[in-house]
Amino acid sequence: MGDPTEQRIKDIIGSTDVVLFMKGVPAAPQCGFSGAVVQILNGLGVPFTGVNVLADPDIRDGIKSFSNWPTIPQLYVKGEFLGGCDIVREMFKLGELAAVLNDKGVAVTAS
Question: What SS3 state is found at 48?
Fold first, then answer.
């Protein structure tokens, strides 16, 4: 991964509290895993920015190197990588996701 791509990723992650690197866009996810995380975030009433990795091959490859995580989607909260679909789904099921969001100062408006 080149430095410009890494810097772009850092800029994206730093631009908003919750960022989801996903396939597709929040209104039209292009894989079931991305769609599942979108549903969870929407269900919690958490505003987030979706980054369509299919639209940018540099970001698609770069985010995997950046996080050292091989799959997409990838969820970041306040600059911290939380995980992919399975981890987010498990955290949600256990009530941990809402707790982490609240701890980081991100408003959860639904449950």
Answer: coil
**Pairing between strand 28-29 and 80-83?**
unpaired
pLDDT in tens, 18-75: 999 999 999 999 999 999 999 999 999 999 999 999 999 999 999 999 999 999 999 9
Q: How confident is the model at residue 88 (pLDDT cuts 50, 70, 90)?
A: very high
Residue ranges and CATH numbers for the domains of the chain are: 3-100 (3.40.30.10)
CA dist., res. 39 & res. 26, Å (int): 9
Give φ, ψ of 15 to 5 degrees: -80, -20
Q: Is 85 annotated as ligand-binding?
A: no
Q: Residue 95: enclosing H or E segment and its boundaries?
A: none
pLDDT: which is higher, 107 or 48:
48
